[in-house]
């Protein structure tokens, strides 16, 4: 069981802590390779690729081994945690917040998205009194992170595709919390758990499909059955039913059935 205490504490602090004002923010002098285009050219950087993220989701949702690995890791991280506080009133408020926002489900989605896509984005929803009342995990494939040359977040851009076209939503830095488990030095986006194994998984899938096709093509005998009249189909129905998985052609001219040898099939192709 993974020790998830530090991760959960950090997650909760990011959600409930107030944003730093501009005066209190540190002012770094260095440049971020993740943000500055001129600097990032010196690194092996890759642009955000929505098609690649969609492929990650397909691998996760359609392959039993990646799905099991991601699921086990996700629940190991967030499956067992407790709130402890010396102040009973504060603990009660935190517990109420977690209950009202279904915080455990939020954590599960956050960790899963980090493992599958490399990133997770949570929108903080406030009421008119500016109280944090809801947490909404957004689709990471729709988010773009815009940062300045020092690496500070300028804004988050969400691009949602619909039948009527693409819609863009600008979100302030204080409205979104961005998580990643494995950061990259050349990109503001994280590295997914599936990325290093993607080629291996795709090769295995292709090999499995090839083996299945080879068994289907060459592993069973092929029959060519010709029926003289439609009545022959009724008379031989039970016999044909046993062979139905092997049938290639069914005709009604002359009554004849023979087993095609594999060598004969190869010579025709």
Query: Whole-Å distance between the termini?
Result: 56 Å
Please work out how many helical segments DSSP would assign: 10
Mean pLDDT: 75
Number of domains: 2
Given helix and strand content, the structural type is: alpha+beta
Shape: elongated
| Major β-sheet annotation | 3 strands, antiparallel
Enumerate the spans where pLDDT stays under 50 for 5 or more consecutive residues: 39-46, 262-269
Q: Which series of helices and strands comes N to C?
A: HHHHHHEEEEEEHEHHEEH
Number of strands: 9
Q: What features would you highlight for this structure?
A:
three-stranded antiparallel beta sheet, elongated, disordered C terminus, alpha+beta, 9 strands, 269 residues, single chain, 10 helices
Helix-strand blueprint:
Blueprint: H1 5-16, H2 37-40, H3 50-62, H4 64-78, H5 88-100, H6 103-117, E1 120-126, E2 132-138, E3 143-147, E4 153-162, E5 165-171, E6 176-179, H7 198-218, E7 222-226, H8 230-235, H9 237-243, E8 247-251, E9 256-260, H10 262-267
Parallel strand pairs: 7-8
Antiparallel strand pairs: 1-2, 1-6, 3-4, 4-5, 7-9
Describe the structure.
With 269 residues, this protein is an alpha+beta fold. It folds into 2 domains: 5-201, no CATH class; 220-267, no CATH class. Helix content is 42%, strand content 20%. It has helices spanning 5-16, 37-40, 50-62, 64-78, 88-100, 103-117, 198-218, 230-235, 237-243, 262-267, and strands spanning 120-126, 132-138, 143-147, 153-162, 165-171, 176-179, 222-226, 247-251, 256-260. Strands 2-1-6 form a 3-stranded antiparallel β-sheet. Strands 3-4-5 form a 3-stranded antiparallel β-sheet, with no helix packed on it. It has a 3-stranded mixed β-sheet with strand order 8-7-9. Strand 4 (153-162) and strand 5 (165-171) form a beta hairpin. Helix 4 packs across helix 6 (103-117). The longest helix has 21 residues, at 198-218. It starts with a helix and ends with a helix. The relative contact order is 0.12.
